[in-house]
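The records we work with from here on pair a chain with its fold. Here is one such record, which you should read through line by line:
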Amino acid sequence: MLNLGGNCGALIIYTGRDLHGREIEISRDDEERRTHSAVRERQVRDGAFHSAVYPDLEAGLYTVWWDDRTPAGAISVTGGSIAEFVWPTSSPPGAG
């Protein structure tokens, strides 16, 4: 269950099955503190997909981290909605 409304939104990061069980970190652009979520398989009527879900996020710009030092991208989370990010299929330049 996602708690959406006011200044609270959520983020779903879609990945391939190869990342099943991996924890993906995110952080607000104005903070050093990171939070993580594990990639899980989600069953739907037409099959399955893999994703990491971040509920109850304060609205703002977030960095999605490839590893400890390398960002995979950025995503804007808006209150009352669900932001979606597709995990890159190849590593960013400089990734460890």
Observations:
- The chain is about 0% helix and 55% strand.
- Residues 8-86 form one domain.
- The chain has one domain: 8-86.
- Strands lie at 8-15, 23-28, 35-38, 40-44, 47-58, 60-65, 71-77, 82-86.
